Amino acid sequence: MTLPSNLKRDPTLPEPATSTAAAPASLPRRHFLHKGAAMAGSAFAAGTMGAGLARGESLAIPEAGKAMGRPIPAKEYGMPSKFEKDYVRVRTNVFVNRQNHSDWSFTPLQYQQGIVTPNGVIYERHHNGTPDIDPDTHKLVIHGMVKQPLVFTMSDLMRYPSVSKFYFMECSGNGLTDWTKPASTTVQQTHGLLSCGQWVGVPFSTLLDEAGLAPGAKWLLVEGADGAGHTRSIPLNKAMSDGLLVYALNGEMLRPENGYPLRAFFPGWEGNVNVKWLRRIKVGDQPWHFRSETARYTDPMPDGKWRQFSMEMDAKSVITNPSGGQKLAGAGFYEIRGFAWSGRGKVAKVDVSVDGGKNWREAALEEPVLDKCLTTFRVPWNWDGRLAVLQSRVMDSTGYVQPTIQEIGVARGIHPYAFVQHHNGIQSWAVTERGEVSNVIAS
What we know:
The chain is mainly beta. The chain folds into two domains: about 120-305, Oxidoreductase, molybdopterin-binding domain (Sulfite Oxidase, Chain A, domain 2), CATH 3.90.420; about 315-440, Immunoglobulin-like. The protein is built from five helices and 23 strands. The strands form six sheets. A five-stranded mixed beta sheet has the order 4-3-12-7-8. Strands 5, 6, 9, 10 and 11 form a five-stranded antiparallel beta sheet that branches. It has a five-stranded antiparallel beta sheet with strand order 18-17-21-22-23, with no helix packed on it. A hairpin with a 5-residue loop joins strand 13 and strand 14 (about 305). The longest helix has 8 residues, at about 205-210. It is globular and about 70 Å long.
């Protein structure tokens, strides 16, 4: 493992001692170890929890227990605690875009608890800002190679049988700033164009069957009602298999920045194809080759050509705690945790390394493990206070294993000036002896 020079051992710090004490009786060793999984060395060994983690003392009555609380309002949309002020979307700290219309905002993954992303922090990607659309006047048209063109109001669509599914959504540009150097600071900036939730809507197949597909129909045009008129070509077989016309997310109607009142959603595919503010579906026999599938959202290859229509998001994982910008309180027990996902199926296995990929240990997967959905993984770690490099790699249900950055760079012909999509290389977090966690590219 090679680290940048600024991550070499700090000679001003004392040599850390590796704990060999047995776990206390109240916290048996098996509580921290994953069903006997073993690994060379003691990097993952769950020894004592660490002095001072919990001590017995008298419990004072808090000020909150001495006064009346806030009464229940007659009508209110509940908000998070005022103390959770850091749990917010932020724009990129790498690209500076002063006009803020064609831009991103990132989900704070380091604070997310569980696989569902709250609606207020689901990542954003817009090409001309967020429109304000009245659902009472919004219409959806289906035309082209169909037997009967159809027009739907939102009231019409709400009468159709709906489905409710948990899926992740990821922008194909997630991680594009960090191909050749660790440009981003936190996991929010490296991987925050990622969210997960419960999507509610009408299957594409229901409405397309009603319109009646003409012989030779193979592709769909899906178009948004925003000022950019964002449009993508979608293979008909994908739309018919699991595509959704979504109007609700996580128990409430879509928010404006997420496509209110209607959006397309194609599970496991890049966020760009999930056209927001959906107004038109045209059926055709070939793709349309829009700007978003020629000049953008394509992948460079080693032979100098660019790959089109690479919509599926390959298997990926990232450690969210500890992660960049955080600081460990000192040597002792920690739980390494993060998320894994795949656009091609379920998460089958996640391995974690604390030495930059020299040794790996299988992490525990937390239920539910669902198709094309975020999966939480966890592994206990007794940090000895030495330099460490944390990594995770996922294998999905197809047998695909997440590659290193170097491996995918060779396969894709990555170069420093390419605006590159579909970065699913292994993420590395370096932990210094002072407990400071930073983004690095380990080799």
